[in-house]
Structures are given as structure tokens and as C-alpha cells.
Specification:
142 residues, mainly alpha, 67% helix
């Protein structure tokens, strides 16, 4: 009994935190306050990296851990589409388009149904290969 209660509370907390993070990004996306769309850095923080200082998991971690909801998967898909709309800071644009296209397709599979399937999670994890994309597209830190 305690274990199932803990899981329900964990899911609720993860969903609420992810939703709050995405709402903040949504304000940027609509142009509120700044008049701009989210940057790659903002997309990465909410969708892929999370906020370690605030102990907030990324949407990718929440969804691929099996603790996410359909709404989390939908938010992640929106972020993947936002990322695909950006130009790479460095590297080949055609390669960027292919990789982000594969990421969007995998995120669309996660977003089908009530909960992501193990197959869709595996496909998404393969498409969301941080190291290979960062090696190709991330500019060096200053």
C-alpha cells in the first residue's frame, strides 16, 4: 500500500513540476515578456537536461522512466518540434534536419495512447542521443 501511494505521489509531483517548467517555456514561446521563441538552451533545459539545482527532472527522464503522463509526452513532442525548427549553432544543416526529424518521429510515437510503450521509449532513447548531437552541433563553451 505504501509503495503504490509513493508512486502516485511521485507521478503527481513529476507531472506538476514538468508542467510548470513547460508553462514557463510556453510563455517564452508565445513571445510573452521577451517577444522571442525559446532558445535551444531553454528547450534543452526543460526537455532534455532538467534543472539539477532545483531537483527537477527533464521531460525526457519523466516520460522514459515510465512515470510520465500523456500530457508529459505531448509537452515533450512540442519541445522536439521547437528544436527541429531551430538552426544548428554549428555543423551540417542537413544532418541537423535528419536528426531532429528522427527525434520528432520518435516523440510522436511516445505521444500515442495513454502511456508510452517500451518500444516507443527505446526508439526515443536511440533518437535522443545527447553525445552525438552535442559533438556535431553544440558550440564550444566559452
Amino acid at each position: 500500500m505504501k509503495r503504490s501511494h509513493f508512486r502516485i505521489v511521485s507521478i503527481a509531483v513529476a507531472s506538476g513540476i514538468s508542467a510548470a517548467a513547460f508553462i514557463g517555456l510556453g510563455a517564452v514561446s508565445r513571445g510573452d515578456d521577451t517577444g522571442s521563441t525559446p532558445t535551444i538552451k531553454e528547450i534543452m533545459k526543460v526537455g532534455f537536461a532538467g534543472d539539477k539545482k532545483a531537483k527537477v527532472d527533464s521531460l525526457t527522464k519523466v516520460v522514459t522512466s515510465g512515470k510520465g503522463t500523456h500530457e508529459n509526452a505531448d509537452q515533450l513532442l512540442k519541445l522536439c518540434k521547437e528544436l527541429a525548427d531551430r538552426k544548428p549553432p554549428k555543423g551540417d544543416t542537413a544532418d541537423w534536419t535528419k536528426r531532429t526529424g528522427d527525434l520528432v518521429a520518435a516523440a510522436e510515437q511516445l505521444d500515442k495512447g495513454d502511456m508510452p510503450t517500451p518500444e516507443s521509449i527505446a526508439a526515443y532513447k536511440k533518437a535522443a542521443d545527447c553525445k552525438s548531437c552535442h559533438t556535431e552541433f553544440r558550440p564550444p563553451k566559452k
